[in-house]
């Protein structure tokens, strides 16, 4: 895997993460900014659902996990929090973009790093990582945008070690 | 034929023949002619004489096991056989006290009258008889002298006790694992005959014994039977089970270190030999024998041949996945039926591997996202095609093409072509070279439609694990009987996929760095298949027959039937299970568990493999 690197705008501090989370969940991914207050209770209240996160594990770390269905996303949204309630990872599958994917991609600017397709959790997609935003767009070319991930701003090393983005699905035979 | 080979819906593609498992299913209950110096034919004849036609028929009809230490638990004894023993007649004929001797007579006679299938009665009577004999002996020990009649009684009782172990073995096959563990612990610690527990244990497979005894609460009993039965002088037939129990005791006492050994140069070399695919070894040997050049990767027509094979593989999977996609779903509510099966699968895996690391993995639940119904996902055409080429080709059309082109001899060059086939076939991108356009056009299915079908196949795939999430296809069968089979298939699939979630991240990263897909698949899937098989063998068939709670968990609360046809045989597996077993035989299960569950990859000895 030979990633290519680029530049992206520096993130701005956000006092309240909920409106930006809801905007991102509605397809405005360029508005996403992580906030330390996005706990399961806060997110559940914002979405109007009762989240009951349970034990989960990601890359050897014990976390809390939950799944919700929301009107703005076509497939269930997967959530991971750290045990202290800080949001760790949000996974959107085949997400729509508002107003459109080309415009959102344009607003996002250059990604921090692009990991080519061929391996990883969605091996058909290149991973366009906006690490200081805490956002990855999984671009499957002819297969469409396969996923969007939201997470805290982090380094490339932390991205590989914490998110599981480079693990490959295993199958029964 | 390609595709998911779990024993689930009858209309899914299935292997045309079971993969041979060394030391496993293709043997007669773990008893080989080579191991016993008895031919299968003569052994069966002997079995027929001692246990009757029913036992032989049952044995031949039943699935064989892996890891059996001694004769099969399928061997059918019955109280009728017991009653034919001369010792039973002798006991009945000797006069004795109403307090100590006559209870023994009553129980010996009562056992003879029990029905063969009255396992509870047989178990209870044997226990009572053992107690009565102990009381008689205790009374005798307090006497001033021993008469000739007392000596005759003692001789008859010794013979009766000889029958105990065989009867116990039969009964053991009908006990739940928990009951078996408790009974063995009692026999190990306090049976009047030191070898009694060993004899019963010798009739139980290693995996079932592990499930029954692998607990710190059983360690004292295991150590007791080891102390009561020193290696020296032990009958040869009991030596293997004693060795196993000694190893088990060490592992219970020190699960992270017992049996774990460092790699060395010899291991590095041997592991590399084991992990060379059989077809590659054969091709190299043939070339060497003929004096010709060593086989090399043949890139010409590789793209075309691979495309044709991949298309055949996709179409065979489409034949079952399309209809399955149209069926109704199963109960995937949080806390519902499917989640209960997942909990049972975890419980069974952790019974064998929990102390080595598996138990730390979270439970599989829909609400936490550690369990998923694949019917709710979008499906990934690219990953489905990637799997068919990279991991699932062994033994199928794709694998045959890879063998024919000697792809193993240059993994990098082969992979470059495979990448293009996967891209183009899944419609991620369009081919540009004329030969590649022609190959894709030759499939007769447009790229968008190929992608759609691959997506459906992916959604209906029996089991996938990603990022600690077990994802299963939970669809009903065409009939209630088929659905019952699907539940057992889910149980097997969840054992396998749950095991993946327990693999240490360091282990996953280690094999992920290997260049050749055969090497990767051996560590990723072969090891998982081996642990899956062991777990399955810890419950199949005795626990499934004996434990109604297990059956209702898997089949549903309203379905208590014992339907071994629906249960099916051992979980299907990757061909690389063969290599995993070879590695286990070479450097031991302890090293495999150290790497898989705890990330101690240095013990595996794969440092020479291409990266």
Topology (SSEs and partners):
The complex is a heterodimer of chains A (173) and B (611).
Chain A (H helix, E strand, L loop, with lengths): L3 E2 L11 H9 L14 H8 L6 E5 L2 E8 L8 E5 L5 E7 L7 H8 L4 E3 L10 E5 L4 E5 L5 E6 L5 H8 L6 E2 L2
Chain B lengths: L32 H4 L3 H12 L1 H9 L17 H5 L2 H8 L8 H12 L5 H23 L6 H25 L4 H14 L5 H7 L3 H8 L5 H10 L10 H15 L11 H10 L3 H13 L11 H24 L11 H17 L17 E3 L7 H10 L6 H8 L6 H15 L8 H8 L5 H14 L2 E4 L2 E4 L7 H23 L2 H8 L4 H21 L4 H5 L1 H8 L8 H4 L9 H11 L1 H10 L13
Parallel strand pairs in B: 1-3
Antiparallel strand pairs in B: 2-3
Task: Tell me what you see in this structure.
The complex is a heterodimer of chains A (173) and B (611). In chain A, a hairpin with a 2-residue loop joins β2 (54-58) and β3. Chain A has one domain. Chain A has 4 helices and 10 strands. Chain A has 173 residues and is α+β, with helices and mostly antiparallel strands. By secondary structure, chain B is mainly α. Chain B has 2 domains: 79-253, no CATH class; 278-604, no CATH class. In chain B, 59% of the residues lie in helices and 2% in strands. Chain B has 30 helices and 3 strands. In chain B, strands 1-3-2 form a 3-stranded mixed β-sheet. Chains A and B meet through β2, β3, β4 and β10 of A and α18, β2, α23, α24 and α25 of B. β10 of chain A pairs antiparallel with β2 of chain B.
Overall number of structural domains of chain A: 1
Strand order of the largest sheet of chain B: 1-3-2
Strand content of chain A: 25-35%
Q: Quaternary state, please?
A: heterodimer
The radius of gyration of chain A is 15 Å
**Percentage of β-strand residues of chain B:** under 5%
Instruction: Determine the structural class of chain B based on helices, strands and strand pairing.
Output: mainly alpha
Tally of separate helices of chain A: 4
List SSEs of chain A in N-to-C order: EHHEEEEHEEEEHE
Helix content of chain B: 55-70%
Please tell me what the overall shape of chain B is: elongated
How would you state the average pLDDT of chain A, rounded?
A: 92
Task: Say how many strands of chain B there are.
Answer: 3
């Amino acid at each position: 895997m030979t990633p290519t690197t680029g530049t992206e705008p520096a993130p701005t501090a956000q006092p309240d993460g909920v409106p930006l989370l809801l905007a991102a969940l509605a397809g405005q991914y360029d508005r996403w900014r992580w906030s330390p207050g996005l706990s399961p209770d806060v997110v559940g209240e914002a979405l109007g659902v009762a989240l009951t996160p349970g034990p989960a594990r990601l890359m050897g770390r014990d976390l809390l996990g939950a799944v919700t269905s929301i009107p703005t996303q076509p497939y269930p949204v997967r959530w991971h929090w750290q045990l202290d309630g800080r949001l760790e990872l949000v996974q959107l599958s085949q997400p729509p973009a508002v107003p459109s994917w080309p415009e959102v991609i344009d607003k996002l600017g250059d990604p921090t790093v692009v990991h080519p397709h061929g391996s990883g959790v969605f091996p058909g997609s290149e991973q366009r990582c906006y690490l200081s935003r805490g956002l990855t767009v999984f671009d499957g070319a002819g297969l469409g945008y396969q996923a969007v991930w939201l997470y805290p701003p982090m380094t490339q090393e932390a991205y590989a070690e914490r998110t599981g983005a480079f693990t490959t699905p295993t199958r029964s035979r | 034929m390609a595709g998911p080979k779990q024993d689930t819906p009858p209309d899914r593609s299935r292997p045309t023949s079971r993969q041979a498992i060394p030391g496993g299913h293709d043997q007669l209950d773990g008893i080989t002619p080579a191991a016993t110096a008895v031919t299968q034919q003569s052994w069966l004849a002997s079995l027929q004489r001692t246990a009757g036609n029913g036992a032989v028929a049952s044995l031949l009809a039943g699935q064989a096991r892996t890891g059996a230490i001694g004769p099969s638990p399928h061997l059918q004894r019955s109280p009728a056989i017991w009653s034919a023993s001369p010792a039973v007649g002798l006991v009945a004929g000797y006069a004795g006290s109403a307090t100590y001797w006559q209870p023994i007579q009553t129980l010996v006679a009562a056992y003879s009258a029990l029905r063969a299938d009255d396992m509870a009665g047989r178990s209870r009577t044997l226990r009572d008889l053992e107690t009565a004999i102990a009381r008689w002996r205790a009374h005798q020990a307090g006497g001033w002298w021993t008469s000739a009649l007392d000596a005759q009684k003692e001789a008859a009782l010794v013979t009766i006790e000889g029958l105990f172990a065989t009867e116990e073995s039969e009964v053991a096959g009908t006990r739940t694992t928990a009951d078996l563990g408790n009974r063995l612990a009692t026999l190990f610690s306090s049976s009047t005959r030191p070898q009694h527990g060993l004899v019963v244990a010798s009739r139980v497979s290693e995996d079932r014994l592990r499930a029954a005894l692998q607990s710190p609460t059983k360690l004292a009993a295991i150590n007791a039977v080891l102390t009561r039965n020193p290696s020296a002088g032990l009958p040869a037939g009991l030596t293997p089970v004693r060795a196993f129990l000694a190893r088990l005791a060490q592992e219970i006492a020190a699960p992270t270190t017992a049996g774990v050994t460092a790699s060395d140069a010899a291991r590095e070399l041997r592991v590399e030999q084991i992990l060379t695919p059989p077809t590659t070894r054969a091709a190299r040997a043939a070339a060497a024998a003929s004096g010709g050049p060593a086989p090399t990767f043949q890139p010409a027509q590789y793209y075309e041949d691979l495309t044709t094979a991949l298309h055949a593989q996709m179409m065979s999977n489409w034949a079952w996945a399309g209809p399955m996609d149209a069926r109704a779903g199963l109960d995937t509510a949080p806390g519902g039926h499917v989640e209960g099966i997942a909990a049972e699968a975890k419980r069974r895996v952790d019974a064998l591997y929990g102390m080595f690391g598996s138990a730390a993995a979270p439970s599989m639940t829909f609400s936490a996202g550690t369990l998923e119904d694949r019917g709710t996902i979008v499906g990934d055409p690219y990953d489905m095609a990637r799997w068919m080429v990279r991991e699932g080709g062994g033994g199928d059309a794709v694998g045959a093409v890879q063998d024919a082109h000697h792809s193993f001899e240059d993994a990098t060059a082969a992979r470059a072509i495979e990448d293009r086939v996967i891209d183009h076939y899944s419609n991620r991108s369009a081919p540009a070279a004329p030969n590649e356009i022609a190959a894709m056009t030759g499939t007769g299915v447009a790229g968008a439609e190929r992608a759609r079908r691959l997506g459906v196949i992916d959604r209906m795939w029996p089991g996938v694990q990603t990022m600690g999430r077990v994802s299963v296809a939970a669809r009903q069968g065409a009939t209630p009987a088929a659905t019952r089979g699907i539940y057992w298939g889910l149980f097997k699939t969840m054992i396998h996929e749950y095991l993946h979630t327990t693999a240490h991240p360091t282990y996953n990263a280690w094999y992920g760095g290997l260049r050749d897909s055969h090497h990767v698949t051996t560590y990723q899937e072969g090891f998982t298949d081996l642990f899956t098989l062991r777990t399955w063998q810890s419950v199949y068939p005795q626990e499934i027959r004996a434990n109604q709670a297990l059956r209702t968990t898997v089949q549903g609360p309203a379905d208590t039937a014992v339907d071994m046809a629906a249960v099916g045989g051992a979980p299907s597996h990757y061909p690389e299970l063969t290599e995993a077993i070879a590695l286990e035989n070479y450097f031991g299960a302890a090293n495999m568990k150290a790497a898989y569950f705890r990330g101690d990859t240095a013990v595996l000895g794969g440092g020479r493999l291409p990266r």
